[in-house]
Amino acid sequence: MSDQIIGLHHWFDSPPGQYLLAWEQARFDEAVADIFGYHSLQLGMPLLDGLRANRMPHQWLALGQEGMNKGTLGFMEAASGADVPLQRRTVDLLAEPVSLPFAEASLDLLVLPHTLELSVDPHAALREVERVLVPEGRVVISGLNPASLWGLRQRRARLYQRMGRGTLYLPDVGEFIGYRRLRDWLRLLSFEVESARFGCYRPAVRSAQWLERFGWMDPLGEKWWPILGAAYFLVAVKRVHGMRLLEPAWRTNRQRSAATVPIANRATHRAPTSPAAKAGRKP
Fold this sequence. Notes:
The protein has helices at 2-11, 15-32, 70-78, 115-118, 122-132, 149-162, 179-188, 208-213, 217-224, 249-258, 275-279; strands spanning 39-43, 58-63, 93-94, 107-113, 133-144, 191-199, 231-238.
């Protein structure tokens, strides 16, 4: 597992990796800016600061034991001069995505940049996310899209490797999780996808020069073939069935004061006349 994580971090130092990293950083900044709460956590990917635009008072960056190996730390030191958004905060704790050291319903926001792709068991990681999130808490996930030009080149490179030639374009981190598949997993855990977006429509080229030449494909791809981007980005909300939100006390008092009170009509409701009074009444 350590070789896979090192491969992913080194790939982000390449021109296509920096292109993808810049797009994801912008999406995380937009998504977390207006999410309020007290406690937030980013799992993995220290090269991307998914919480820098968020204003929660308690923020943590957690890495798995594999993420703290010497190869990854050495790459981060070597890439200090690269044009990539390196981590803004230090690593706060070691924690595996499948076993987080937090109590149930204790976090308001979780950020998972490529965390599920690197996880030994992505199903268990999502179940752990559901456990530690508060009701109406949010999880923000980014991943590589297998249904894209980049994914097509990766599958072709795997086929060539079986014949003894060719190199992979994307890091060899196992099977990438498609957007529809991930959305079904979230629904099974009572998550509701609040927003989703695809990006990085340029072809699978390796040089920065060719990436710049194909820059015109990003606006066209977002308009004409949006689900074929090289990466996807989504925000999901944890829904709790049967939970009733309490309204403010001032709203309840106002409704009570505005309620009408029925008053008896004296013209139609008269007191009954006694038999003695009826006998003494003149004809």
